[in-house]
Amino acid sequence: MAKLLSSDDPKNVKADKIKTRIESELKQVRYDDPLLFEEFSTKIKKTLAEYDETRDADKYFTAMETMADDFRNGRLTKDYPSSIANDSDTKAFYGAIINILRSKTELNLSDTLENVIANHSRKITQVVADRAKRDWKHNEVVHKQIHRALDDCLFEMFDEIEYEINNSNIDTLDLIIDEIMKVAVARY
User: Fold this and answer.
1) Which of 11, 18, 41, 88 could be 57's S-S partner, Cβ–Cβ 3.0 to 4.6 Å?
2) Is residue 173 part of a domain?
3) Containing domain of residue 119, as a range?
4) Which residues, including other chains, have CB under 8 Å from residue 40's CB and lie 6 or more apart?
5) Terminal alpha carbon distance of the chain
6) pTM of the entire structure?
7) Do 111 and 180 share a structural domain?
8) Which residues of 118-139 are buried (b: 16+ CB within 10 A; e: fewer)?
9) 16, 39, 73 — which closes off a domain?
10) Residue 8 in 3-state DSSP?
11) Does residue 121 share a domain with residue 29?
12) 34 CB contacts (<8 Å, ≥6 apart)?
């Protein structure tokens, strides 16, 4: 990073270099840490929108430098629930679920609900771990087994958080399962 910024480029060019570097690293961690990916992708979009509006290169550069430091140190605005803080697989599944619930539902995700989701994320980790076997990533039979087990886990979770799944929002369930499968394929 220091090499990128050592040139005599204007600050907006240096900020663009930082943005490009963060984006390339974000693509690598998308399914390893979905919350990190979502948060920093949103921050980048917001920072770019502000820069496009104000054209203040100093502010843009400062914001991107701060973002790079936060990214390098893994600082998020919201921490994972303590029950899963040391389990990277569970955190990945939790992040996938939370991101979709935040974007597709009107749920108020309190700490209590997040802890319930964290507990079910641990069950999802076990479901995937129990069914993942050699060459499972391209095995449709295993995929269907995992899908059925995920359906059960997620319906149980939705019952516990009192979120009703019906015909108007069944796509939320499908999106969560698809995202969990992407995380599973990337991690196992």
Assistant:
1) 11
2) yes
3) 82-187
4) 22, 26, 67, 70, 71
5) 31
6) 0.77
7) yes
8) bbbbbbbbebbeebbeeebeee
9) 73
10) coil
11) no
12) 92, 95, 96, 98, 99, 179, 183
